Amino acid sequence: MENELKDDPCSSEEAFSEKPKKMKAKAKGKTKSQREGKEKTHRKMKASEEEIMETEGSGDRRSHVNVKEEPKEDPDFVTEKKGKKRKRKADNTDGLLSSAEAPLPKKKKKKVADGQENASTAKQKKMKEKKEKVKKEEGERPVSTKKKKTKEEIEAARALKIKKKEEEEKQRWRWWEEEKYENGIKWKFLEHKGPYFPPAYQPLPDDVKFYYNGEPVKLSLPAEEVALYFAQMLDHEYTTKEVFRNNFFKDWRKEMTLEERQLIMDLKKCDFGELHAMHKEKVEARKNLSKEEKLVNKEANQKIVDEYGFCVLDHHRERIGNFKIEPPGLFRGRGDHPKQGMLKKRIRPEDVIINCSKESRIPEAPAGHKWKEVRHDKTVTWLASWTENVQGSCKYVMLNANSKLKGEKDWEKYEVARKLKTCVDAIRTQYQEDLKSKQMGTRQRAVALYFIDKLALRAGNEKEEGETADTVGCCSLRVEHITLHDALDDQKCVVEFDFLGKDCIRYYNKVPVTKRVFKNLKLFMENKQGGDDLFDRLNTASLNKHLSSLMPGLTAKVFRTYNASITLQQQLKELSNMKDNVPEKLLSYNRANRAVAVLCNHQRAPPKSFDQSMANLQAKIDSRKEQLDLAKKELKQAKKEAKGSSDNKLLVVVEKKKKAVQRCEEQLLKMEVQATDREENKQIALSTSKLNYLDPRISVAWCKNMEVPLDKIYNKTLRDKFAWAVDMTELDFVF
DNA sequence: GCTGGAACTTAGGATGATGACA
DNA sequence: TGTCATCATCCTAAGTTCCAGC
């Protein structure tokens, strides 16, 4: 290795003579909470041991071994780390909003111990009595109050459903058959009702009290509202975290009156028990509503959706994605977010900017209020926006994923990714060459690109220290995030990655790389400490600038889309078999999908009831096996009895038993396939890649070719979102 | 070339709705 | 019919990219 380094055309001295673009970070110790956060995310990484990558070779990219193994104690966590990053604008939490609001029905106190009934049990009793009355009137016949549907009625319902579907299809805006606007124009006419505001806060009932130091304290409304936000979260782990509690307490005190502030000095002395109980009761009561009451609520919600959930865009009615203003509450940042627990303030119309056509009916602000601004910008897609107080970022009301604006952008995204296919070989050749460059910056860019291409890493923008959790992507990787192994598990030049990526999801992977990459990494790490940037002469802007010079529209993100889609296509080709039955074909599809999810590191927390549900399924499988054995025995017996006999009855029995065996076998297979699929999916989220990275035309074409109904892999939302692909994809589509 | 903000996509968890099964 | 599991949808945080202004 040393010799290789000597022979390297890029001597360290020469290469480092360039001025580093990024300042070296100063060492800083990791906090305990950071350490705990990272340890916690380890649970997410136990997932599949499945390795779906090809071996590295000429032109092969997917060569790493994606080993997700139980992590060992990370010594880095107790050593020093370095910080970097820019200082940011001051937070504006001081812009105090008062009006504490949020709906709360009057408390119905439930004292089961005292023998009192709660509302829901009373209601159930009433229903029961009603039913019994019906029974009596009908002469004590044990009949159901629900009328059984006749065959004709079932048929009619089915026909209605088909008709509705056809109607929907007829009404669908086939925007993909129209010309696109130019010069950044997104729409020509836009009309909407403005966003929907959450209801005002309803004060606590008199019998629900907050206690401080054991004494009841009547809080002012603003303080009471914020106290309730905390009380509602008491069952959540958040409220046990020191950072969350401190941030909450600090912001809560800002909402208090002077007197309250002087009295309430210690969060530990606060008792939110009654508030918490009231909240739980409310949730429980909501769950126990009768069918009729639920229907009333549903209709009320539908009314809101009908009124606020749609807009008119260029003469077409389009669904809005998030027409509701985010309600106030406590900020739930992911991982070890330094701002978790801060108060997310109530948004008023005076904070909201409306965007619509000049010639449209301008939405009216709620009574007694006015909008911050009304503008008519046709070059953007948002309908309303506001700035949130915790991070100072903009929030937007935008259209639903099935809208023209979103669909067009999505289609374009996959077309750019397909375009990459035509030049990816040249780009790979180029960055392989760049690994030998005399310029350190060029070498770093080449290695980063190698990772982005091979491992589907995100670009990794720089982040501001203290503003967000400590997460990284490719360009922002630090020395402490990788470990180099000359040899590991019979493989040479292995890079071990261990870092927190987007949403604090841990990325852990051991990847064999080419000698040249390995050697470069050693070079980049020379004379650096754990907290220093691995790629100190690279940032996402310069990387993307370079990429766009290689292909118009090419950015780091495109590689993720391209590699996800091409992997799906390859895997489907490899795994699918026309002779399989539908459940087996679906298992193949899911496995291909899973390969992508593993590549993109899409993880989820295992469902809470996972073990129990697997045990239940296994029990069912065992029981079905017993049934099958029994059915087989019966078939054997029936055959024996029918042998040599011309009695038609006996032959019928044999046929019957044969069918029973067949049915049992089919059910057993289905269950076994389901168990395998579920187990393999335990910690892998398939939906993210399906929704964002996989060209839908690959899936549509696969369904057509494999004769699998599309609704087996795409639910209604996905079919709507990808209507353009469903409509235009032919059997022979190739990504 | 750097910085910060605007505009947009991507992401996992929470919640509500629906379906399967005893 | 009630319960439980699963699926679909909602919610909003956390990314990426682009661009204007210096």
TrEMBL record:
<dbReference type="InterPro" id="IPR013030">
    <property type="entry name" value="DNA_topo_DNA_db_N_dom2"/>
</dbReference>
<dbReference type="InterPro" id="IPR051062">
    <property type="entry name" value="Topoisomerase_IB"/>
</dbReference>
<feature type="compositionally biased region" description="Basic and acidic residues">
    <location>
        <begin position="129"/>
        <end position="143"/>
    </location>
</feature>
<keyword id="KW-0413">Isomerase</keyword>
<dbReference type="GO" id="GO:0006260">
    <property type="term" value="P:DNA replication"/>
</dbReference>
<keyword id="KW-0175">Coiled coil</keyword>
<feature type="active site" description="O-(3'-phospho-DNA)-tyrosine intermediate">
    <location>
        <position position="693"/>
    </location>
</feature>
<dbReference type="Pfam" id="PF14370">
    <property type="entry name" value="Topo_C_assoc"/>
</dbReference>
<dbReference type="InterPro" id="IPR014727">
    <property type="entry name" value="TopoI_cat_a/b-sub_euk"/>
</dbReference>
<dbReference type="InterPro" id="IPR025834">
    <property type="entry name" value="TopoI_C_dom"/>
</dbReference>
<dbReference type="InterPro" id="IPR048045">
    <property type="entry name" value="Topoisomer_I_DNA-bd"/>
</dbReference>
<keyword id="KW-0799">Topoisomerase</keyword>
<dbReference type="InterPro" id="IPR008336">
    <property type="entry name" value="TopoI_DNA-bd_euk"/>
</dbReference>
<dbReference type="Pfam" id="PF02919">
    <property type="entry name" value="Topoisom_I_N"/>
</dbReference>
<dbReference type="GO" id="GO:0005730">
    <property type="term" value="C:nucleolus"/>
</dbReference>
<dbReference type="InterPro" id="IPR014711">
    <property type="entry name" value="TopoI_cat_a-hlx-sub_euk"/>
</dbReference>
<feature type="domain" description="DNA topoisomerase I eukaryotic-type">
    <location>
        <begin position="330"/>
        <end position="707"/>
    </location>
</feature>
<comment type="similarity">
    <text>Belongs to the type IB topoisomerase family.</text>
</comment>
<dbReference type="InterPro" id="IPR001631">
    <property type="entry name" value="TopoI"/>
</dbReference>
<dbReference type="GO" id="GO:0006265">
    <property type="term" value="P:DNA topological change"/>
</dbReference>
<dbReference type="InterPro" id="IPR011010">
    <property type="entry name" value="DNA_brk_join_enz"/>
</dbReference>
<dbReference type="GO" id="GO:0007059">
    <property type="term" value="P:chromosome segregation"/>
</dbReference>
<feature type="region of interest" description="Disordered">
    <location>
        <begin position="1"/>
        <end position="151"/>
    </location>
</feature>
<dbReference type="InterPro" id="IPR018521">
    <property type="entry name" value="TopoIB_AS"/>
</dbReference>
<dbReference type="InterPro" id="IPR013034">
    <property type="entry name" value="DNA_topo_DNA_db_N_dom1"/>
</dbReference>
<dbReference type="GO" id="GO:0005694">
    <property type="term" value="C:chromosome"/>
</dbReference>
<dbReference type="GO" id="GO:0003917">
    <property type="term" value="F:DNA topoisomerase type I (single strand cut, ATP-independent) activity"/>
</dbReference>
<comment type="function">
    <text>Releases the supercoiling and torsional tension of DNA introduced during the DNA replication and transcription by transiently cleaving and rejoining one strand of the DNA duplex. Introduces a single-strand break via transesterification at the specific target site 5'-[CT]CCTTp site in duplex DNA. The scissile phosphodiester is attacked by the catalytic tyrosine of the enzyme, resulting in the formation of a DNA-(3'-phosphotyrosyl)-enzyme intermediate and the expulsion of a 5'-OH DNA strand. The free DNA strand then undergoes passage around the unbroken strand thus removing DNA supercoils.</text>
</comment>
<dbReference type="InterPro" id="IPR036202">
    <property type="entry name" value="TopoI_DNA-bd_euk_N_sf"/>
</dbReference>
<keyword id="KW-0238">DNA-binding</keyword>
<dbReference type="InterPro" id="IPR013500">
    <property type="entry name" value="TopoI_cat_euk"/>
</dbReference>
<dbReference type="InterPro" id="IPR013499">
    <property type="entry name" value="TopoI_euk"/>
</dbReference>
<feature type="coiled-coil region">
    <location>
        <begin position="614"/>
        <end position="681"/>
    </location>
</feature>
<dbReference type="GO" id="GO:0003677">
    <property type="term" value="F:DNA binding"/>
</dbReference>
<protein>
    <recommendedName>
        <fullName>DNA topoisomerase I</fullName>
        <ecNumber>5.6.2.1</ecNumber>
    </recommendedName>
</protein>
<dbReference type="Pfam" id="PF01028">
    <property type="entry name" value="Topoisom_I"/>
</dbReference>
<feature type="compositionally biased region" description="Basic residues">
    <location>
        <begin position="21"/>
        <end position="32"/>
    </location>
</feature>
<feature type="compositionally biased region" description="Basic and acidic residues">
    <location>
        <begin position="58"/>
        <end position="81"/>
    </location>
</feature>
